[in-house]
Specification:
7-stranded mixed beta sheet, alpha/beta, 21% strand
């Protein structure tokens, strides 16, 4: 088990979720971080509760892809808190179906994450990519048809009678463990007066 130098440090995990899979992933990450000895607050960006970022030592943000774009509330949050995010230890993870493909399940090879990073001025120090789920049973008719079209174009499943979870939970736990190590390393860097928000790929 890994422990931060200051066991009372608190860390924030914020997520946006449309169909619930990113919420499940965020909660799994939070649970693993807690197992690593960290104090973690896991909260939806969609909630109206006011977040006092100054209360936390780090911020990890997660968002799914919806029709080719990360959710707008994530962009809004980043714009509002850009200064804090760029001066504190932080990370970001993207949940998308493209990550189901081995050649696109890394931060540097996932087109959605790379596109996202090119659109923002925040430079998260740690990034990750996870595959989401295909939940046809939860989609409205229009969404189901559109997603079937996208799946047909990308070689995915188009059988609307089946829900498929592509998330690799072992990879999710590994991401959380790596992020915990990143937090420890950042704490050491900051203590030694070294830049601590250096980008790292999961």
């Amino acid at each position: 088990m890994l422990w931060l130098e200051n066991p009372m440090s608190e860390h924030l995990l914020l997520y946006a979720s449309h169909d619930g899979q990113t919420k499940k992933i965020a909660q799994a990450i939070a649970a693993e971080l807690s197992q690593q000895g960290l104090i973690v607050q896991c909260q939806s960006i969609n909630e109206n509760a006011v977040v006092n970022l100054n209360h936390y030592n780090s911020v990890l943000i997660g968002s799914p892809i919806r029709y080719g774009h990360h959710l707008p509330e994530v962009f809004d949050f980043i714009r509002q808190h850009e200064s804090f995010l760029n001066t504190h230890t932080s990370g970001f993870f993207s949940v998308n179906l493209t990550a189901r493909k081995p050649e696109k399940n890394r931060p540097e090879t996932n087109p959605y994450l790379q596109k996202f990073l090119s659109k923002i001025t925040w430079k998260p120090g740690f990034t990750g990519v996870m595959a989401g789920s295909l939940l046809y049973s939860r989609y409205r008719w229009f969404d189901r048809v559109m997603i079937q079209l996208i799946m047909k174009m990308t070689g995915g499943n188009t059988d609307a009678s089946k829900d498929i979870e592509y998330t690799d939970w072992t990879a999710v736990r590994q991401f959380a463990q790596d992020y915990a190590q990143y937090l420890i390393s950042s704490t050491t860097c900051c203590k030694d007066g070294v830049e601590c928000n250096k980008p790292v790929d999961a």
